[in-house]
Amino acid sequence: MRSWVDSSSQYCKMSNIDQLRNRIDEITLQMLRLFKDRTDIARQIGELKKSSGLGVTDEAREEQLRVRVTQMCKDIGLDESLGKKFLNFLLNESVKIQSEGKQTHLTVFLKAKALEQQGRKIIHMEVGEPDFMPPAAAKTGFDEAFDGGIVRYGPAAGMPRLRAALAEYAIRNFGANATAENILVSPGGRFAVYLAVNTLLNPGDEIIIIEPAWPAYRECAINAGIKVRTIQTRLEDKWEPSITQIEQAINSNTKMIVMNYPNNPTGKILAPAIQDRIVEIARKNDLYVLSDEIYSLYAYRDWKSVLANNYEKTIVTQSFSKSHAMTGFRIGYTVADKSIIDRMVKLQALCITNVAEPIQYAALKALNSDLVQYKKSMKSKLDTVSEEARRIGLEFLEPDGAMYVFARAGAGIFDGLDFTNRLLERGVAVAPGEGFGNYRGFIRISVAQDENKLKEGMKILDEVLKGYR
Ligand code: PLP
C-alpha cells in the first residue's frame, strides 16, 4: 500500500511540472511576440532595400550577427550548433519575406506566354529551351514502348535497362566509376536537385551556392529550411569564386556546396585546377558536392565532370532537357554513390512512384543519338549573340559553354527588371539578372532560338537600351 508521504511527494512533483510548463508556455508566447516584431522589421528592411536597389542577402551583415550569436552561446552555455541553426531559421524567414515578388526568368516567361495568348508575337530569349527537335529515336521509342506494353508502373529508381545504359554513358562521357546502382532516373534535373537537397540536408543546415546561379538551388534550400550561404562572383573576376571566401563560409552546420559548370547564367567553365580545389575543400570538410552538369554537352573549352574527382559525397545531376532537346519529356538523372541514390529513391517513390515508362523508354532509345549538330548549332548561336552584344556595347564575359550570355546592361541605378518589362512590351523576352542573385544591372539572354530571331531580338534590345542612355 502507498503511504501518504509517497502521494504527497507525487503531488509536489506534479505541481512543479505544472509550474515549469506554465513558464515554458509563457516563454513560447513571448518568443512569438518577439518573432512577430522581428518579421515586421525584416519587412521594413526589405522595402528599403528594394527602393535603394540593394539585394536581399548581405553576407557580411549576417556574419556580424553570427559572430554575436556564437559568443552569446558560449556565454550562456547553449550548444553553438543549435544556436546557429535557430539563427538560420530566423535568417531564412527574413530572406523569404524580402524575396516576395522577386522576378525570375520564369515570371518573364509566364508574362510572355500571357501576351502570346492575346495574339502578340514574342521573341523568346528568356528560357533555356533548345529550339531543335528531339532526336528521331525518341519518337520511334514511343511507338515501340506502346507496342511492347511498356506502359505500366515500374521501379522507383528507373527502368533497369535505362539505368545500366546511363551508367555506361556516364563512364564514357564523364569519367564516372558507375554501375546501374549509381543511377536514379527522375522527372528532369530540377527534381533531382530537389531530391538531393531534401534527402541529404536537414533544417538549419547550410548550403553554399556560388552566384550568379540558377534560382532553383536557393529556392529548394529555403523551402526545406536550409540556410543559403552565398559566394558572390563578379564579372570583373571572370566569374571565378574566391577560394578563401568559400573556406570562410564553412562552419559545423555546412553540409553541401553546389557547383554548376558550364554555368547558367554566365556560361563560365571553371579551370580544372579551381574545380579540383573546391572538391578538395569539400572533402576536407566532409561536405556533399552537388554538381549540376546539365549543360555539359555545350562545353566549348576544357570541361571535366566532378565525377572524375572520385569523391564519394558527389551528386551529379544531369538531364535530357538540354543535351537531347527533350525539355517536354521531363526526364533527367542523378549519378552518385549507392547510399545516396537509395535515400533519394525513397523520396522519389513517395512523391511520384516512378518516371513514366514510355518516357524512360524513349530516352533510352535517344540516349546515344548523334548530338554533334546540336553542339555546333548552339556554338554558332552563342557566337551570334556575343557578336551582337559586343556591337551594341554590352559588358560580358565570352561564354565558355551553356546557352546564355549574361551581360551588364547598365550600371548604378539601372534597373534590369524595369528594362526587361519595357523590352517585353516591344516583343522581346529576356531574363532579369536579379533572378540569379544580386545582379540588378544584368540581364540573361538565352541564345536557344533561331538565329534570325536572335538578331532581330538584339536589334530591339539595343533600341530599348538606347532609351536609358
Ligand atoms: N539545372 C540548370 C542549371 C538549369 O538551367 C535547368 C533548366 O533551365 C535545370 C537544371 C532543369 O532542367 P530540367 O528540364 O531537366 O528539369
TrEMBL record:
Its EC number is 2.6.1.-. Its cofactor is pyridoxal 5'-phosphate. GO terms for biological process: amino acid metabolic process; chorismate metabolic process. It holds the Pfam family CM_2. It comes from the Archaea. GO terms for molecular function: chorismate mutase activity; pyridoxal phosphate binding; transaminase activity. It is an enzyme of class 2 (transferase). InterPro entries: Aminotransferase_I/II_large, AspAT/PAT-like, Chorismate_II_sf, CM_dom_sf, CM_II_prokaryot, NHTrfase_class1_PyrdxlP-BS, PyrdxlP-dep_Trfase, PyrdxlP-dep_Trfase_major. Residues 11-102 form the Chorismate mutase domain. Keywords: Aminotransferase, Pyridoxal phosphate, Transferase. Homodimer. Belongs to the class-I pyridoxal-phosphate-dependent aminotransferase family. This is Aminotransferase.
